[in-house]
Amino acid sequence: MKPPRPTAAVTAPRNLRRVVPDATALKALAHPVRLRMLGMLRVDGPATATQLAVRLGLNSGATSYHLRQLAQYGFIEDKPGPSRRDRWWRASHELTSVLETDAEGAELDAGVAFSQASLSLQVGQMQQAVEEYAELPARWRKASTASDITVPLTAEQAEALTKRLTDIMLEAMRDAPPLGEPMPPDTAPFTIMLRAFPYPGRIPHRDEEGEP
Asked: What's the pLDDT tens digit per position in 60-108?
């Protein structure tokens, strides 16, 4: 009898660490410098205030202040480093979830403010990506896209579509190596930005429909 063929090891999808901030924490995060810091720590891994200050073009005092604010609301945490002289920081989560559909009042205002701040950051990243596009290797140019698609949908259909797209991205993230750690060969952080919304100016505001 022939021995059974060895099977390839199957790596189970990893759990993604996610945070859903309250209105106060979200307001603290909706700052352009803190958003950039958190993004750097998530994508590039742990760093010190001095390292982040150099990358952001800030003085170490301002950088330390923003890091303390992020730590106060649980977005980052201490990480033991190679030296006791320097304090190392790492991101506490991989994802931030905001703008819950049932949010109202201060919570909704904080979510909108965060969305505006993150949009400004994303526009800058997209602009830099366009500027670097011509210098990318052909295989990475082929993997990149800039799509703008408008589809007639009901609110229920639109919700189902955005959920499908989000689920696909989260599935890919669970199957991929974690950010902030050494990447396997030929692997790089790949950004996918999803912003889905009714075409501006086409949906009556809630007060116009008589909604509370």
From this structure: 899 999 999 999 999 999 988 676 678 999 999 999 988 666 667 888 8
Q: Alpha-carbon dihedral of residues 94, 134, 136, 95, nearest 10 degrees?
A: 0
β-bridge mates for residue 78, sequence order: 89
Query: How is residue 97 written in tokens?
Result: 């979830």
* Secondary structure class of 67 (helix, strand, coil): helix
**If we measure between CA atoms, which residue out of 174, 173, 178, 176 comes closest to residue 192?**
173
Inform me whether the pLDDT recorded for 1 exceeds 70.
no
Per-residue pLDDT at 212: 46
Contacts 24+ apart (CB under 8 A), 73-77: 73/21, 73/24, 73/25, 73/28, 73/29, 74/19, 74/25, 75/19, 75/21, 75/25, 75/29, 75/34, 75/38, 76/37, 76/38, 76/41
Q: How far apart are CA 52 and CA 64, in angstroms?
A: 9
CB 91 within 8 A of CB 41: yes
Q: Distance (Å, rounded) from C-alpha 163 to C-alpha 196? A: 10
> Helix (H, G, I), strand (E, B), or coil: what is residue 1?
coil
**What's this model's pTM, rounded to 2 decimal places?**
0.85
**Closest-CA residue to 46 (of 93, 85, 79, 2):** 79
Query: Which residues are 88's β-sheet partners?
Result: 48, 79
pLDDT per residue over 156-174, tens digit each? 999 999 999 999 999 999 9
